[in-house]
Design brief:
mainly alpha, binds adenine, binds ligand LTSJ6FE6
Length: 283
């Protein structure tokens, strides 16, 4: 048990697949960071639309979160309710901010992948991506929506101003952007011959085209969100990563986002959740 688990209730759950869950989550966060071109976001190539963080911030954050996903899987296996999961998540957020010097790298991922890790623990071996997403909705969805969040967050400001749904609604609905958009896009690209890293680019664009991303609304307002979704849909309509010249087109979208300071952070989390579910399914 790690220090993060001190926030959890004392439970003696059955033997869980915690190590496998932890490994899959780390692979997913690193895979998301490595994915490029990923318009507006930080990668090993550049910092996209961000002045306060770079790839090193994300690597520090991943290390700072060590043990968190294992603990969420163990808590899920022990039948933890939302309040217990949330306590573990809040401690992980503190660890993330300590690791990055106060920069929000993975708040959304702590939340989304944390819930999915708990579902993986609860379901045990063999549950597929759709089942895990549905389990989050079924078991914790109502409590997720009922929870009082941080009233000062960017997400809260966007909710107040535009009435837009955000990370909570996505989780409570069983991650529809993952199951209906990003995951099918990744699988279709792989079936047609794309390698896993290129399929991740396709999954990312599919998410941007579909998601009401509170980060895009926060930085760019309704116009920024519309621009981002239309640019992503245009890339996919032109054949996405399966069409010749795709890399240059994706790069042009990236540059357009950077020029407008747009950052689709919600889609970064959707991609990480997708890669997490795929890594878990691979074992
Ligand atoms: C439920 C919480 C996640 C709180 O959410 P809330 O809506 O109140 O607001 P935010 O603090 O703004 O965080 C929401 C993050 O979720 C991601 N996101 C956005 N839209 C969606 C969406 N439609 N669907 C899914 N996910 C979405 C997004 O995360 C990424 O962006 C982060 C960078 O954000 P920010 O710092 O605001 O933006 P910048 O542009 O960088 O800021 P400036 O430079 O302009 O200043 C990055 O971290 C990505 O991860 C949103 O940020 C949650 O906080 C909560 O309740 N947590 C509880 C603890 C927990 O996790 N418990 C465990 C599970 S129960
Ligand atoms: N790669 C990334 N760049 C910017 N914000 C993010 N939030 C989560 N992953 C991110």
């Amino acid at each position: 048990m790690t220090a993060l688990a001190l926030a959890a209730p004392a439970v003696d759950g059955p033997a869980v697949n915690g190590r496998r869950v932890e490994r899959a989550a780390r692979l997913a966060l690193l895979g998301e960071l490595a994915c490029f071109p990923k318009p507006g976001l930080v990668s090993f190539v550049d910092a996209g639309s961000h002045a306060d963080m770079d790839a090193t911030s994300f690597l520090r954050s991943v290390i700072g979160l060590s043990g968190y996903f294992h603990d969420m899987a163990a808590a899920g296996a022990a039948g933890a309710g939302f309040a217990a999961l949330n306590r573990i998540g809040r401690v992980a957020e503190v660890a993330m901010f300590r690791a990055t010097g106060g920069v929000n790298t993975h708040r959304g991922a702590v939340f989304a992948l944390g819930l999915l890790a708990a579902a993986a623990g609860a379901a045990g071996e063999g549950a597929g991506p759709d089942e895990l997403c549905a389990l989050v909705a079924e078991r914790w969805g109502a409590a997720v929506l009922a929870a009082r969040g941080d009233e000062q967050s960017h997400g809260a400001a966007v909710r107040k101003r535009y009435g837009a749904p955000g990370a909570r609604e996505e989780a409570a609905a069983g991650f529809p952007t993952v199951t209906r958009h990003a995951l099918p896009a990744w699988r279709a690209a792989r079936r047609k011959g794309a390698d896993p890293a290129t399929a991740a680019v396709q999954a990312f664009f599919a998410s941007v085209a579909a998601l009401e991303d509170t980060n895009l609304l926060h930085r760019g307002g309704v116009e920024g969100l519309a621009h981002a979704r239309a640019a992503a849909a245009g890339f996919l309509d032109a054949g996405g990563v399966l069409a010749p010249g795709w890399h240059a087109r994706a790069l042009a979208v990236h540059r357009g986002f950077v020029a407008r300071r747009l950052s689709p952070g919600g889609s970064a989390d959707i991609l990480a959740a997708t890669l997490f579910l795929l890594a878990l399914a691979e074992g």
